Amino acid sequence: MIRKLGSWALTTLRKMGDMLIFLANAIYFAFIPPFKFRLLLKQIRFFGNKSMVVILLTGSFAGMVLALQLYYTLRKFGSDALLGPAIALSLIRELGPVLAALMVTGRAGSALTAEIGIMRISEQIDALSSMALNPFRYLIVPNLVAAVIVFPLLTAIFDVIGIFGGYVVAVDLLGMSGGTYFSQMEVFVDMKDIRMGLYKSLSFGLIVAWVCCYKGFNTGYGAEGVSKSTTEAVVTSSVLILIWDYFMGSILL
Amino acid sequence: MIEIIDLVKTFDGNRVLNGVNLTIADNVLMAIIGKSGGGKSVLLKHLIGLLKPDSGKILVDGTDITTLGSRDMDKVREHLGVLFQGGALFDSINVYDNVAFPLREKTKLSESEINDRVIQALNDVGLKGMNMKFPAEVSGGMRKRVALARTLITEPKIVFFDEPTTGLDPIILSSIHRLIMTTHKKYRFTGVIISHEIPEIFDVADRIAMLHEGVIVETGTSDEIKNSLNPVVVQFINGGLEGPIAAV
To answer: Looking at this predicted complex, what is its ipTM?
Structure first.
């Protein structure tokens, strides 16, 4: 029993070490030329394009649900005029970065792991190495940088769409005044809140690209190996997003 | 010249290479034969520096590549070409871009010079007019040809072929073997072919080495191997079920 526990702890520690070395390598090569700008643009498009529809959909419905639930709660305290800022603060500080990151993980992160995993099992990564070309420059760095650029942008879109989703429900469905919804928002939402959301989305971008690239790069054999890596990438990224969100929240609060 | 000296590699307690010794002279086409799962591809991965041995040396023109760091290994790889088992073509770009890839990434040639060389390389492997096709749109044999064109376009001094004809029908198999021979004559590279295509490989390679249970048990010309009295070699080239090689 103790031996099994020790073996599990050692394996986990080794995997964590592997992941950290992988990230350190990726960050190192991100600052060493030659830079692959064309690949970076391609990956920005990959993350942005693949996730846009799902961000628009989930963003609008997240705002609409928030409007319904918060209106019900705030009315109990006679504070329904604060619905706009409550929605905006919830989205900008917390829900926007987290939900957008989870959506992008499911949509683009899984595809990224599968793509790199297939490149691994079909020896395309070995082919790059055998040509004296560094696979990190071609596969990992562009994804890492693209995710760090795209995640805040997608989060911003998620927040804006969510606020408008909330507006539709608050004004058209619940009969609130449009002026109240937005004017109170301006009073309560600070630059600090926007910065918090930005820092969170930046770090989530790094986490998702790191985990998904690592899992794809170190995929097992055959279709089963790719499928396992893809599942692990999505689960690990999602769990890390929520854990990191708590720590970021505690630090930045 | 490539010299492999006492190369040992173990995976999870299983000794796959058990002291491999082999010398491959310049400009020779050397085939390494042996049963499936016998460590041939593992040996190849050591030769191109993708795996590090537990012990032993691999000297490429006198340099021990097993001790090189990634930057120095890349300098050695500048002179190597590898044809992987499945071709390992980049499936997100077309045939033309696949062949042009090493030139675009590793040389400062102009796009028109690259174009001339890619067209020439594709003609050499009999793939005129296939430029715009994607790897998924061409047959297995064509993929191998494209991969060969990509491998040879940088004119490497040493080319490794990892089971270049596995999974191909006999006609395509012969055409790939003929292509290896004609390109070898044209480019004069040192070739190492991992194969278990018996007897076809005897007509292709200048020399043959047989790998069995992690060691080279016999080396020689095709005729010497065909006339070998070593029971392992005799059983392998005749495909016998009885003998020192366990039939699984």
So the answer is: 0.88
